[in-house]
Structures are given as structure tokens and as C-alpha cells.
Specification:
299 residues, single chain, mainly alpha, 12 helices, globular, 0% strand
Length: 299
């Protein structure tokens, strides 16, 4: 019974942290460009996270079951270790991916407790993590170059259409995160049925109380992009994460979004880009699962 309560508490805290930190990725552009107010952006994010969790949250059930034993004690270890890693990364402002760290922790704990290995699944996940950012860069590059090359007859109507499209893809981005990352937390935790209500509470708490600083920083500093850039980055990221969800594989929204933003930047012939921040981010994608595996093995 104690482990059951601990699982609920840890799942809610993780959900709140993920929602607060990732709300900016979904709606930061809308708020930073003043298409919607902060309250409006939070509402879009909450609706997207919740819808994705409720509609597609079970898509990663098979993967979660194969990665980690269905032991309450081991699940508590997995959630607690992932929480500590994510909290430390947030404190030191290191952009570690929670879902990649949680996958790593699950793999490490499985080895630690002698759970049957699913080598094929692990290889597929790793391959997905390699292909997804490359696809994001390529698609972001191609689609942004196509859109920026358009010469609309009515510039104002085109801009309005892009604003409406941004609202739609922002919701879609939140939806895919709810389906994939939050859905993976749900399946690892085993919070099926009415247990998902606890995660929805975490979504609301994180979006309302933990997102303000991140939204300000991301929305006004990192995402001062043209409407076309932002639209392309979000639609590419959402499409790839949704594709991963449909086949039951965990994929980080941050990974695909960062890569698609980088791809849109490369599409400008006369624009110089600083590649070092992107390479540092790529290094954290490698560090996240490795750190999770090590911590899981040492648990």
C-alpha cells in the first residue's frame, strides 16, 4: 500500500515538472508573439496535455511493460531516480530529457534485478532517437524553405492564417507530449483507470505554477522567430512524436523540436548559425539515457 501511494505522489510530481517545463515548447511562441495571453496559452497547453494523455496515453503500455518489471518497489525506484535526475538537471539548467532518462533508468533497473532483456526493443528505441532528430532537421529545412519562398497575394490574410495555424499546431504539440511523455509516465506508474485523474491534477499544477519563468525565457528570448519558422518547427516535431506514439515508442518532444528549429535556421542561405548550443544539446541526449542506466544499475 505504501509503495502505491509513493507511486502516485512521484507520478504527480513528475507530471507537474514535465508540464511546467514543456509548456513553453508548446505555447511559448503564441505567448511570446502575443497571439494569445499567458492565461490563454496555459489553457491551450492544459487541454492539449490532458487530451493526449486520455486519448493516446495507453499507446506505450507494451513498451513500458517490456522495459521494467511490474514491481511496485522497482517502479518507485524508477520514478524517484528519474525525478532526482530531472530536478538536478533543471536546477543546473542542463536540458536533459526526462523521457530519455526514464527509459535509461528502466533499462538499468531491469538489468539490476534480472528482468528478461528486450534487446530488440531497446535497439529500436535507440534507432528512433537517432533517426528522429535527423528527420526533424531535414523536414524543417525543406518545409521552411518552401514556405518562405511563397509570395502570397494578400500578406495580411496569409499572416492571419499562420497565426491560426500556430494555435492549432501549439495544441497539437501539447497533445503529442501528453500522449508520449506523460503517457509513458502513466504506463510506467501503472496509473490506469481513475488513477489518471492524479496526473491531470499534476498537469494543471505544473502548467499554472511552474511555467511562468520558463515561458518568459523561451517565449520571448529563444522563440523570437518568424511565424513560418515557428509553424514549421512545431508541425514537424508534432508529426514525428505522434508517429512514434502510434507505433508505441517513447520520443522526446524537446529532441524533435530542437532539431526542427535548427533545420529551419539552416534553410536561410544568408543566415549564420551558432552550432555550438545545438551540439551541447545533442550531447545531453546521449547523457540522459546513459545517466539513467547508470543510476538504475546502482539502485
Amino acid at each position: 500500500m505504501l509503495y502505491g501511494y509513493l507511486i502516485i505522489v512521484l507520478a504527480v510530481i513528475l507530471t507537474a515538472l514535465v508540464s511546467g517545463n514543456n509548456l513553453s515548447a508548446a505555447v511559448g511562441t503564441l505567448i511570446g508573439s502575443r497571439i494569445v495571453s499567458r492565461i490563454g496559452g496555459i489553457i491551450i497547453g492544459i487541454l492539449g496535455f490532458t487530451s493526449g494523455l486520455l486519448i493516446q496515453g495507453e499507446s506505450l503500455a507494451d513498451t513500458a511493460t517490456k522495459l521494467i518489471p511490474r514491481s511496485s518497489q522497482i517502479i518507485v525506484f524508477a520514478l524517484l531516480i528519474a525525478l532526482i535526475i530531472f530536478a538536478l538537471a533543471t536546477y543546473f539548467r542542463v536540458p536533459l530529457s526526462l523521457i530519455m532518462a526514464l527509459v535509461g533508468v528502466s533499462i538499468g533497473l531491469s538489468y539490476r534485478f534480472g528482468y528478461p532483456e528486450h534487446t530488440y526493443l531497446i535497439r529500436i528505441i535507440i534507432l528512433t532517437w537517432i533517426i528522429a532528430p535527423l528527420a526533424s532537421i531535414a523536414l524543417g529545412f525543406a518545409l521552411n524553405r518552401k514556405l518562405t519562398g511563397l509570395q502570397p497575394k494578400n500578406v495580411w490574410n496569409f499572416a492571419l492564417s499562420l497565426k491560426l495555424a500556430l494555435v492549432a499546431v501549439s495544441f497539437l504539440t501539447a497533445f503529442t507530449l501528453g500522449a508520449n511523455t506523460l503517457g509513458f509516465i502513466e504506463q510506467i506508474s501503472g496509473l490506469g483507470g481513475f488513477g489518471v485523474i492524479y496526473m491531470i491534477i499534476g498537469i494543471v499544477l505544473g502548467s499554472v505554477f511552474l511555467s511562468k519563468g520558463v515561458i518568459r525565457r523561451v517565449g520571448q528570448e529563444m522563440y523570437l522567430m518568424r511565424y513560418t519558422n515557428a509553424f514549421v518547427a512545431l508541425i514537424v516535431s508534432s508529426a514525428l512524436v505522434e508517429g512514434a506514439t502510434l507505433i508505441g515508442l517513447p520520443l522526446s518532444n524537446t529532441q524533435t523540436l530542437t532539431s526542427s528549429v535548427f533545420g529551419t535556421g539552416l534553410s536561410y542561405r544568408n543566415k549564420l548559425m551558432e552550432i555550438r548550443p545545438f551540439l551541447i544539446t545533442v550531447a545531453t541526449w546521449i547523457l540522459s539515457p546513459l545517466l539513467g542506466i547508470i543510476c538504475g544499475l546502482l539502485a
